[in-house]
Amino acid sequence: MDSGTRERVNIMEALKYFKDKRAEFAGNHFSPKEALAFVKSLYKLGCTKVDIDWEYPEDEEPGEIYADAMLITLPKTISKRFDVVLAIWGEYPDEVSADSVYDKPVNWRKDKNVLLWWD
To answer: Model-level pTM?
Structure first.
């Protein structure tokens, strides 16, 4: 899905996000080290951009930032996209569904961006 489909206001590139010691990502699924390793693996597989959709949650400590969603920009080639799909579904089959992009089905062949979300 194109990132312009839905306005995202709290977007930060993932590697920059994880430099902030207050940043947490889907804490019930990832340690900060695991989340950062996952982001790095997406880049290694060919994703051209990984953004974190973050917020200042009301129920967390003041100043903490929290996120449970990533907006990834998929590689252009089909074979590299397939590698990304396998990595995501291989590691997180119960958390990431084929229709997790803006409540619409993901077209892994055509969509430029895919929103990954953990609840």
So the answer is: 0.80
